[in-house]
Amino acid sequence: MATYVILSRFSPDAFADPRDLKQLAHTVSGKIKSECPGVVWKDSFATMGRFDVVDIVESDDPEQVEKAAMMIRAYGHSTTETLVATQWKEFLGML
């Protein structure tokens, strides 16, 4: 399975109260689980920088990862950037 990093940044109008983020995250997660079964969520991190959330996922189907990122944009009121990731040891082995 390939590893992907999905970087997300919330729109300023994504939610009115920070506590609303829990429901928003639950809604987005449920949509992705039901509509993108080929995407396996490995981990998620909240960050203090250019992006608000970093998600690490795995999939054999890049189209499903694209769909998941689009769902984060639509339902999560976010912008996203998706990167393909290679484990450092594997990367060095290719050189």
Written account of the structure:
The protein is α+β, with helices and mostly antiparallel strands and 95 residues long. The chain has a single domain (2-94), classed as Lrp/AsnC effector binding domain/regulation of amino acid metabolism (RAM) domain (Alpha-Beta Plaits), CATH 3.30.70. It is 39% helix and 33% strand. The protein has three helices and four strands. The chain has helices spanning 21-35, 62-76, 88-94; strands at residues 2-10, 40-46, 53-59, 78-85. A four-stranded antiparallel beta sheet has the order 2-3-1-4, with helices on one face. The protein is globular and about 50 Å long. It starts with a strand and ends with a helix. The model has no long low-confidence stretch (mean pLDDT 95).
What is the element string, with H for helices and E for strands? EHEEHEH
Shape descriptor: globular
Number of helices: 3
> Mean pLDDT, as a whole number?
95
Question: Structural class from helices and strands?
Answer: alpha+beta
The N- and C-terminal alpha carbons lie at a distance of 21 Å
Q: How many DSSP E strands? A: 4
Question: In CATH terms, what is the architecture?
Answer: 2-Layer Sandwich
Strand content: 25-35%
Low-confidence stretches: none
Major sheet attributes: 4 strands, antiparallel
**The CATH homologous superfamily:** Lrp/AsnC effector binding domain/regulation of amino acid metabolism (RAM) domain
Q: How helical, in percent, are the residues?
A: 25-40%
- Domains, number: 1
What would the CATH topology be?
Answer: Alpha-Beta Plaits
Q: State Rg.
A: 14 Å
Give the C-level CATH assignment.
Alpha Beta
Name the strands of the widest sheet in spatial order: 2-3-1-4
